[in-house]
Specification:
By secondary structure, this protein is of the alpha+beta class. It has a domain of 44 residues. The protein is built from 2 helices and 2 strands. It has a two-stranded antiparallel sheet. The longest helix has 12 residues.
Length: 69
């Protein structure tokens, strides 16, 4: 029978402010979405102050591919 051997928590190393994530979302989605304010208001209403990410926020601004190197 399966058992839980241990329990732990982990937090990704890059902390970013919610406002910075909202700004990035606006930059990324605004060209394709009309009335972007309607959608980005969720950042304010979620009452999240900071987020933890596995990569720096700037990493998400670079174009990437699924191709293996």
């Amino acid at each position: 029978m399966p058992r839980i051997a241990a329990v732990a928590t982990a937090t990704p190393p890059h902390r970013v402010r919610q406002h910075d994530v909202e700004r990035l979302a606006r930059q990324f989605f605004a060209p394709a979405i009309d009335n972007i304010d309607r959608y980005t208001s969720i950042f304010e209403h979620a009452e999240i102050e900071t987020r933890s990410l596995a990569a720096p926020l700037e990493w998400f601004t670079e174009r990437r591919s699924w191709a293996l190197n």
